[in-house]
Amino acid sequence: MNRKGKPVRKCHGCILNLGERCAIYEEPHDKWHHSKCSSYNDQELYRKYLEDLEKHSQKDSKKLRKEAAREHNTEEHHQGMKGKR
Predict the structure, then answer these.
(1) 40: exposed, middle or buried (Cβ count in 10 Å: 0-12, 13-18, 19+)
(2) What is the full per-residue pLDDT of the chain (85 aa) written as tens digits?
(3) Considering the entire predicted model, what is its pTM?
(4) What is d(CA 4, CA 14) in angstroms, rounded to the nearest whole number?
(5) Can you tell me the distance from the alpha carbon of 11 to that of 23, in angstroms, rounded to the nearest whole number?
(6) For residues 48-83, b (16+ Cβ closer than 10 Å) or e, as one string?
(7) Which phi and psi angles does 69 have, rounded to 5°?
(8) How many Cβ atoms from other residues are within 10 Å of residue 17's Cβ?
């Protein structure tokens, strides 16, 4: 079976289920091997996941690149045309 880390059907009501992946485990299918995931709706793991998200926010270089692209679209070009908005 080709597993890509996508949550299984049993993960449907879990707060750690992000749709395309599990917030904690790379292979959620393996956690359900014995009919119960040990971390199903675990508030403590979810809180740790949210803390990690806050620590690793979007990189500054990515933010700067987005701002520069936004400004480039409003500058006038040498042909006298403005970029798309």
Answers:
(1) middle
(2) 556 667 888 888 899 988 888 888 888 888 888 888 888 999 999 999 999 888 877 677 888 888 888 888 776 766 666 555 4
(3) 0.57
(4) 19
(5) 11
(6) ebeeeeeeeeeeeeeeeeeeeeeeeeeeeeeeeeee
(7) -65, -40
(8) 19
